[in-house]
Description:
Its main location: membrane. With about 300 residues, the protein is an all-alpha fold. Helix content is about 75%, strand content about 0%. It has 12 helices and 2 strands. The protein has helices spanning about 5-10, 15-45, 50-70, 70-95, 105-125, 150-175, 175-185, 190-195, 200-220, 230-245, 250-270, 275-290, and strands spanning about 145, 150. α3 (about 50-70) runs parallel beside α5, α4 packs antiparallel against α9 (about 200-220) and α11 packs across α12.
Amino acid sequence: MDIVALTACVSSASCLLTQGFNAFVIGMLLFLVASGLTLIFGVLKVVNFTHGSLYMLGAYFAFYVYGLTNSYLLAILAGMVGVALFGVLLERIFFRRLYQSNFLMQLLMCYGWILVLDDVVQIVFGAEFQSMDMPPIFARAPIMVAGAPIPIFYIFLISISFIVALAVWLLIVKTAFGSKVRAVAANPSMTAALGINTSLLYAGVFALGAGLAGLAGALAAPVRSLVPGMGFSILIESFIVTVIGGMGSIGGALVAAILIGLCRSFGSVGFPMFTDILVFALMAVVLVLRPDGLFGKAAQT
């Protein structure tokens, strides 16, 4: 532990800004993955353990398309749209059969797909670590703010993530599609009785959740090492985000992801050997004080 270093960092504008931006980069990537995870659970009532693998696919899709086209915009679109389309196939062919199944069946199906996707990526791209070049538009000198070097790509990543967060909120709260999604999440049988195609809604929600994971992978590709199985660690933290924020709450996922980002970023300064413990301790405290999460609602019986 180094309380002195943490105190000095918090007292220094440059260190505070640097670690703050790092926290938001960690947090916003986590939010994109966790928001899709909590959206799928909130509507489909399926705990999608393959979500980390969808993040991995998004990163590799972006890596491959960027290598072909040298266009990061196309790489991002490939990661997001490609994974969303794959998510539709996954939901239509496999996951739709699990909606009435028990948790064990869901877990086994997801675990099987984790193994399949990890092996496919290893066969296609190899088992070694890969890295994606930073796009030239972002490979410039960082912007200096109060003596803190802020990489341009970090600003881009955080901005895009906040825009996506706002877009998802508007989609769920302000559109007809969102109204139907909220209705089917609350009472699927009544929604179906009203003539709404719940099967199509399920596919749309799964595609949206998968696309968010793919987008996170595409955004992370220039600043993260790519390797088969890379989705496991972010999957664990995404579950922690959904637990802290409240299962099914997009706003809760955003707040929880930023809190975890702050724990990891500033914890690495003062408690570098205990950052994982800090994250789990945060989850434990929240569960003691609010068992349904910060923004979760108690189940109605």
